[in-house]
């Protein structure tokens, strides 16, 4: 079973094009189920503002993946990348370390990968191999963050710094739409000196948030547009698959907005100043120069980690073969026992002795093949599979 990834990211597509390939949670389930019908065995989908990627374990040909991916989003073409084996794992490690992010070594991607992994586990879309890969990845990145420490920074931080250039962040009335990680990440920057008004479809999340930040105000989601002419700053960070603010919703052109979502929450044709991911390109470039000093060291550690995890994945394959050999010996022993019992007139005690003897004998026959697998004397496990018809038995 091999590991692969297919997807698009900010390196291939501009902001407006990336939004065409964004997965909602419902779409993650739908697309994963579609892949399972094509023989893909384990699936994890990572969909963020910077990338839309499908990680999977497979045993069959995967040449069909690009067409399935494009057809699902009703797109004729896109600069998709497909990586397999060690290169797919290298990509995952670099993504989770933040080396492939717009902002190098940013902090939010680790949480996003963990959320994607948790979702896959809850939906029972993973398996032993995929779990090993992602658990090893998450542990590795935590180790790298501790070993190569740097000041914590995120796109939220850069957005606030950009906002300071165009607005006085003191005694402002600010509406924040959303209750997820991005929306709530603005609170530490704005809570003390401003009036924060939150709105979200799921008000239960905001009730819990207010327990932690009692000064925030909460309004129903269907009233968010009514307050637009009463606030100075709008921050929208929902998981909506469509716009939640249209061009005609904005009366005042003095309003300043922040929209870091994919797909967008705010109509980009609205006559307001809107800070989005493209707006932050300059700040990102400056910070990337300062934050890239440890990248080569981390890449070297990634090379070591790939070899380590490859060994662990191989051991899983060996475990499967050993279990199959043991099951095969029991199957042959039981079949032989049934044949002999039907042909011979045996007492209950004799049948018991015969059953134990057959099982011990067939296990002894499998002893040498199992030992060879355990001690890596046989590198090509396909030889064992063919010799003992293991795959055919598993398929039955």
From TrEMBL:
InterPro entries, alphabetized: 4pyrrol_synth_GluRdtase, 4pyrrol_synth_GluRdtase_dimer, 4pyrrol_synth_GluRdtase_N, GluRdtase_N_sf, NAD(P)-bd_dom_sf, Shikm_DH/Glu-tRNA_Rdtase
First-tier enzyme category under EC: oxidoreductase
Highest taxon of the lineage: Bacteria
Gene3D superfamilies for this protein: Glutamyl-tRNA reductase, N-terminal domain, NAD(P)-binding Rossmann-like Domain
Swiss-Prot/TrEMBL site (Important for activity) positions: 91
All copies of domain Quinate/shikimate 5-dehydrogenase/glutamyl-tRNA reductase, residue ranges: 164-281
Glutamyl-tRNA reductase N-terminal domain ranges (all copies): 6-146
Domain Tetrapyrrole biosynthesis glutamyl-tRNA reductase dimerisation, residue spans: 302-390
UniProt: substrate binding residues: 48-51, 101, 106-108, 112
Pathway: Porphyrin-containing compound metabolism; protoporphyrin-IX biosynthesis; 5-aminolevulinate from L-glutamyl-tRNA(Glu): step 1/2
Binding residues annotated for NADP(+), in chain numbering: 178-183
GO biological process: protoporphyrinogen IX biosynthetic process from glutamate
Quaternary organization: Homodimer.
Any further remark recorded for this protein: During catalysis, the active site Cys acts as a nucleophile attacking the alpha-carbonyl group of tRNA-bound glutamate with the formation of a thioester intermediate between enzyme and glutamate, and the concomitant release of tRNA(Glu). The thioester intermediate is finally reduced by direct hydride transfer from NADPH, to form the product GSA.
Role description: Catalyzes the NADPH-dependent reduction of glutamyl-tRNA(Glu) to glutamate 1-semialdehyde (GSA).
Notes concerning its domains: Possesses an unusual extended V-shaped dimeric structure with each monomer consisting of three distinct domains arranged along a curved 'spinal' alpha-helix. The N-terminal catalytic domain specifically recognizes the glutamate moiety of the substrate. The second domain is the NADPH-binding domain, and the third C-terminal domain is responsible for dimerization.
Protein name, UniProt field: Glutamyl-tRNA reductase
Species: Thomasclavelia ramosa DSM 1402
Primary gene name: hemA
């Amino acid at each position: 079973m091999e590991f692969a990834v297919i997807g698009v990211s900010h390196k291939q597509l501009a902001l407006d094009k990336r939004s065409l390939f964004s997965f909602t949670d419902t779409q993650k389930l739908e697309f994963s189920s579609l892949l399972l019908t094509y023989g893909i065995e384990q699936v994890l989908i990572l969909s963020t503002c910077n990338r839309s990627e499908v990680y999977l374990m497979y045993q069959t040909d995967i040449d069909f993946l690009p067409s399935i991916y494009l057809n699902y989003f009703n797109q004729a073409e896109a600069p998709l990348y497909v990586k397999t084996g060690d290169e797919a794992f290298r990509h995952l490690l670099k993504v989770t370390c933040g080396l492939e992010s717009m902002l190098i070594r940013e902090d939010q991607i680790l949480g996003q990968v963990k959320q994607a992994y948790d979702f896959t586990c809850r939906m029972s879309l993973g398996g032993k191999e995929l779990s090993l890969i992602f658990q090893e990845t998450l542990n590795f990145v935590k180790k790298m963050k501790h070993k190569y420490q740097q000041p914590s920074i995120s796109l939220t931080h850069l957005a606030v710094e950009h906002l300071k250039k165009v607005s006085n962040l003191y005694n402002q009335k600010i509406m924040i739409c959303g209750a997820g990680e991005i929306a709530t990440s603005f609170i530490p920057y704005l809570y003390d000196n401003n009036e924060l008004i939150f709105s979200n479809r799921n008000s239960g999340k905001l009730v819990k948030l207010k327990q932690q930040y009692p000064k925030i105000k909460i309004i129903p989601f269907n009233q968010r547009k009514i307050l637009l002419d009463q606030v100075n700053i709008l921050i929208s960070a929902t998981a909506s698959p469509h716009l939640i603010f249209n061009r005609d919703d904005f009366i005042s052109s003095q309003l300043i907005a922040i929209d870091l979502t994919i797909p967008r929450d705010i109509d980009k044709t609205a006559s307001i100043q809107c800070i989005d991911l493209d707006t932050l390109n300059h700040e990102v470039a400056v910070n990337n120069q300062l934050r890239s000093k440890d990248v080569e060291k981390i890449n070297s550690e990634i090379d070591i980690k790939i070899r380590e995890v490859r060994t662990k994945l191989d051991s899983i394959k060996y475990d499967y073969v050993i279990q199959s050999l043991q099951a095969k010996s029991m199957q042959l022993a039981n079949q032989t026992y049934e044949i002999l019992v039907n042909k011979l007139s045996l007492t209950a005690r004799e049948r018991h002795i015969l059953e134990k003897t057959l099982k011990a004998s067939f296990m002894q026959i499998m002893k040498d093949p199992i030992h060879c697998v355990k001690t890596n004397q046989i590198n090509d496990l396909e030889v064992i599979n063919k010799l003992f018809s293991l795959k055919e038995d598993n398929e039955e």
